[in-house]
Amino acid sequence: MDLSFTPEENAFRDEVRTFFKENLPQDIRDKLVSGLHPSKDDLVRWTRILNKKGWAVPHWPVQYGGAGWTPVQQYIFLEEQMLAPSPQMLAFGTSMVGPVIYTFGNEEQKKKYLPAIANLDTWWSQGFSEPGAGSDLAGLKTTARKDGDFYIVNGQKTWTTLGQHGDMIFTLVRTDPAAKKQQGISFLLIDMKTSGITVRPIQTIDGGFEVNEVFFDDVRVPAENLVGEENKGWDYAKFLLGNERVGIARVGASKERIRRLKQLAAEERDGDTPLIENPRFREKLAAIEVELKALEMTQLRVVAAERNREKGKPDPASSILKIKGSEIQQAITELALEVAGPYVAPFRAESEDHGWNEPPAGPEWASPFAPTYFNYRKVSIYGGSNEIQKNIIAKAILGL
Amino acid sequence: MDLSFTPEENAFRDEVRTFFKENLPQDIRDKLVSGLHPSKDDLVRWTRILNKKGWAVPHWPVQYGGAGWTPVQQYIFLEEQMLAPSPQMLAFGTSMVGPVIYTFGNEEQKKKYLPAIANLDTWWSQGFSEPGAGSDLAGLKTTARKDGDFYIVNGQKTWTTLGQHGDMIFTLVRTDPAAKKQQGISFLLIDMKTSGITVRPIQTIDGGFEVNEVFFDDVRVPAENLVGEENKGWDYAKFLLGNERVGIARVGASKERIRRLKQLAAEERDGDTPLIENPRFREKLAAIEVELKALEMTQLRVVAAERNREKGKPDPASSILKIKGSEIQQAITELALEVAGPYVAPFRAESEDHGWNEPPAGPEWASPFAPTYFNYRKVSIYGGSNEIQKNIIAKAILGL
Amino acid sequence: MDFDLNEEQRMLKDSVDRLIADKYDFEQRKAYLKGENGYSTDIWSQFAELGLLALPFAEADGGFGGGPVETMIVMESFGRGLVVEPYFATVVLSGGLLRHAASAAQRATFVPMIAGGEKIFAFAHGERLARYNLAHVETKATKDGDGYVLNGEKSLVLNGDSADFLIVSARVSGATRDRSGIGLFLIDAKAPGVTRRGYSNQDATRSAEVSFADVKVEAAHVLGQPGDAIDAIERVTDEAIAALCAEAVGGMAESHRQTVEYLKTRKQFGVTIGSFQALQHRAVEMFVMVEQARSITMYATMMAAEIDARERARAMSAAKVQIGKSVRFVGQQSVQLHGGVGVTYELAVGHYFKRNTMIDMMYGDGDHHLTRLSNMGGLIAA
Amino acid sequence: MDFDLNEEQRMLKDSVDRLIADKYDFEQRKAYLKGENGYSTDIWSQFAELGLLALPFAEADGGFGGGPVETMIVMESFGRGLVVEPYFATVVLSGGLLRHAASAAQRATFVPMIAGGEKIFAFAHGERLARYNLAHVETKATKDGDGYVLNGEKSLVLNGDSADFLIVSARVSGATRDRSGIGLFLIDAKAPGVTRRGYSNQDATRSAEVSFADVKVEAAHVLGQPGDAIDAIERVTDEAIAALCAEAVGGMAESHRQTVEYLKTRKQFGVTIGSFQALQHRAVEMFVMVEQARSITMYATMMAAEIDARERARAMSAAKVQIGKSVRFVGQQSVQLHGGVGVTYELAVGHYFKRNTMIDMMYGDGDHHLTRLSNMGGLIAA
């Protein structure tokens, strides 16, 4: 048992940190520090810089463009990405459909899709959730009826994050309506420019538009876009959902947010007194820092156990990462309200180009704080709500 | 809507307060201030002082010795009792079996038992819970078989508080083993000196002995000791359990404990600094005070609504009083640990006569703090655990 | 001690509740938000007709002589409706200043304008570094003949963009946070030298940044004795806190009701999600939070008329602590129990969550008041 | 970065775990508590045989050269067994002082006494008004020829009643809470002038109040340079905190395990209570608390060997904050989920609750350390 990083691991961290320092465009970094969302163009620019370096999909197998890193190295890379802070790679391609394609797809699919994911030539969206299904994912109703060399898709998907930019969407569709719930589902890749597809934005409580509804009305999808076998889609979906482990706690991102809040609290004054001198505020920060340190160690335990674990089998401990990670992220957004104080109130729409039309009321940095607090309620809901996570732990770990 | 006490109500409060000041024996008061338990003799002495004044069972109907007070007056009396602090009347007689007897008992029973309750000539115990039943009270197994003019009782009761002093015990017993769960139960009064009864103390985690197991082995009970009708005992039990409303939040007792903690925290020093000057400690106290103030208002709302409510029908809002009241009581015992600091550790058995054999390690007042913290875990368990209370509210108020 | 409403209060409650039920559902409200100043002048007229705008003023001033209980009744109903009309700025804040700081002659001039629904008033008090310190006033009032001249900047002035009149706090003497030396000045919002920049808030209310460059105030429009205004400002703020608590309770109760309703209808895994015990208990914990908030609001309401400023302050801090705790829990859990749809703009629960979050942050959030209360020695004497 | 135990660590863990499983169940423990000094000398000998008493000492001193990870392994197992033998006082505290403050000659004399299980040591440091300030030393050490004379009172001396030797902190110069001016003095517990009054603690461990009246210390028994002891005291305390965290994790994990077991077997309303979702989720929340405590304990263990005292202190405060939170929740809920029987003396969960409560209160509870950590700037630099 050796709980410190090896010299090699520390050297690797330095290498990554230096690369980020030298190559991450300053305008993108500034935007993320301010708590704003990177634009599509920002993501494309940064992904291509990383891809040139060979770091766009480091966790993939080497033959498909992976970096051949250990789990600890992958963890360090992810952590540094959040600390920079740099945008994270578009997960729908790199962590979701990519691994499904290289694991279950055919050679043609691999050749066609994988390089385009790594270079973000293709923007992938996720078409899993449906209205009325929620955490009961397998209750999906979208159908795909075989018609010669095509599937005819009808139905509706929802919560499609950033679907407005989507080139392709990977979907779960019901190909055998007679089969039981989890059976009869297939995994289908659909070009979003196909006729019959309508994308409608859903406005969220923060006023933003990051999720969408996607409607399918007699959409003709080439049969070659089926991944793996027909009616085996649920297995691929489980594989996909179990894949997201290490990043889910977002420890690095929370560290970066705390650092930022401390900086702002040292600058922002209550009369003549910097906010950071308020002991109660400092203690609330420290309480979150402790939780976060414990979570970081929990995460490292999961990462270190990776090599002893059966490939593709999700670690139930990842549910802890989800629960605590989301609680901490939300607690930080709540504390941010306190830094802004009365200046949480003014609302400023975050427009496409991240500029604003009118001068701010109060400090400019305060504007995203309330919207982020509102918006981040989602993190304990999506990807299986925290209540579902508790059900999973109760069953899988405690045997209740 | 007039949210302040009337002048008459305030005058009544003064009268009660003055009486307590002038008549509560100082040794009893001191014991309660120190967080120690009153002895049997203390309770008897104090009850008889009150009974002489006509205040031992003020909430009873006037013809049985009640004081004819309004619900608000009863509330004020109870509050002053806790603030004094004085011992509370032994609930098993005055609030439990007493009301059952004057509501459902026959004239002979009323004459025989009620005056003896008011004067604490008879010490009553409660025989409801059984091992293995817990919150599922109706799952009781103790049987009473009719044999001429007697019932033959066999079985076991548990959690009989202060049963070691008991002269009489009121019990729920199964008189019809064939009937469904809640039916076939009778309400039987049993003399604890009858042969076949064994009382065995249960030691609690604080080291004390306030609860007991009571074993019944072919105990012969005169049939005249049956209250009301045979097999209707469950109705009387529900009436009894629904009776305990106003006192359950123990707002006055919590106020008195906070006052005491503030006093001690002003005296106890950390080096040269009184503990009360620690801002974090003060804020934790204030947070509890706010909860308690809200609970006090909630309680007053319940008291004021009393007159609009059907007699004997429990107010579901009393579940709020139970939940919040117990949370607050427990939070205060937790904060008391902080006042004692390292001096929570030494253990001193609270002996029968409340004296100790050896000199204290550290401040004498600190000794009961840890035991009380441990012991008070019971307040969210007994009388229907807080989980059960939540089930009740979910069903009765929210309709879930 | 009597928690029942009397006959007039019952009638008031019935009429406000009916107005909100009939005219202020979530869809109707969307239309009102598109009004010129972000609210409906038609609804404002109906408030006037119902007498709501005259409610807290003395009968001698043309009002109905309502007290904190009457304001509580109105604000709780407004909370359920997510009312965006400038009642709080005009009637509670500005009206309160007129009641506590203005002369009879001034009241005779201005109260009817409010009571009749003709004019909107706003209280221009907050400043950039004030945070929650009510004595933080840098804006200067300089003697100028019989009157004064104002110079400075006010921030986060609620309904400052649509107000016809502004009551401005300004310093006639002393340093920025001195309690003495503050005056109150009533000006026409379109007076020369006044610049306003309006904007939306998170909760669909509107505010303005307002600056004053040599703005003249005539002697007749100086409220009270310049220099002594802090007492009136604190008193009005305490009344305002009690009113906001009531609004928060209305919003929470409705958000909770809608959430319980959702639990009863929404199905997942083949059953209504309200059958899951963990969610039932959550709904109960929300209920307890709402009821505790309601209780402390009654306490704040009772104490809003208290003359002893320190006792009043303790009560208001206590109320803000409980309200802060309650709105966070109830708001967050209303969204959580709705799942994905809870985060969408189309559902009301998100809007209750936002409005109540803003109420929590007004005049200091719960933790701010916890510190303040503990520094005043708490509620219970040792 | 490697969380797996190496071969020796695995063997250590196996042997300690086996000893606890075989010899230290809840019933056996009851008998040990009746031993002369409140523990079993037989078990103590078995600790010696297993090498546990020699574990943290350098091989040169006759030890096994174990570090914080080895201590963590032992203490976690002891936590599961609710071990009452004076390992913490003798090996962790006194042994730590010998390691960090004693000369080679002193170590040669005293380490074998500990390692062989022959002598019990206690650290007499706390005083009545010290609370959690390690520099609070009023007890005086006055120069007397080559040696010193001790006068003063020590309080809450863990295992001070049964100890053969006491290591006493005493002031050679400066005021009561000065960091400099403290020395460490090793004395025979039965030396003339030493008075001890032993008593039980809430968790069945024992302590003593100890007073010193002109107690002579020979020069050879002065540890280190008198006046500089605070660094060693802090270092040993930090190691002690890491050890206690591990003990708490062992106790919590076992308390949680027994509670989950109870949920699976106890029936109410015709079903096992573990089928109620609210209780399932509670059990999960306890699990998360245990795992977070385990994680922070690993962090504290890693940092226990850190030389930079300030960084080490941050880590220990962080650990105490998390442990405090976790032990309260896990202890309280273990009792709550057991219902009535959870409050009885006969069940183990109550005893885990009590022991872990005492661990929380040792060296400052979670809130004390939260303030301390926040005053040190927290864990993350701005």
What is the topology?
The complex is a heterotetramer, with 2 copies of chain A (400 residues) and 2 copies of chain C (382 residues).
Chain A lengths: L6 H17 L2 H8 L6 H14 L17 H13 L7 H14 L2 H12 L5 E4 L15 E5 L2 E8 L10 E7 L10 E7 L5 E6 L8 E12 L3 E2 L5 H11 L7 H17 L1 E2 L2 E2 L4 H27 L12 H23 L28 H7 L10 H11 L4
Helix pairs in contact in A: 1-4, 4-8, 5-6, 5-7, 8-9, 8-10, 9-10, 10-11, 10-12
Chain C lengths: L6 H17 L2 H8 L7 H10 L17 H14 L5 H15 L2 H12 L5 E4 L15 E5 L2 E12 L6 E7 L10 E7 L5 E7 L5 E12 L4 E6 L1 H37 L1 E2 L2 E2 L4 H27 L5 H30 L9 H14 L4 H10 L7
Parallel strand pairs in C: 1-4
Antiparallel strand pairs in C: 2-3, 3-7, 4-5, 5-8, 6-7, 9-10
Which CATH architecture of the largest domain in chain A would you pick? Answer: Up-down Bundle
CATH homologous superfamily heading of the largest domain in chain A: Butyryl-CoA Dehydrogenase, subunit A, domain 3
Question: Might you state the CATH topology name of the largest domain in chain C?
Answer: Butyryl-CoA Dehydrogenase, subunit A, domain 3
The low-pLDDT segments of chain C are none
Determine the mean pLDDT of chain A. Answer: 91
List the chains of the largest interface with their residue counts: A-C, 49 and 48 residues
Helix content of chain A: 40-55%
Q: Supply Rg of chain C.
A: 21 Å
Q: Domains counted in the coordinates of chain A: how many? A: 3
Summarize the structure.
The complex is a heterotetramer, with 2 copies of chain A (400 residues) and 2 copies of chain C (382 residues). Chain A has 400 residues and is α+β, with helices and mostly antiparallel strands.
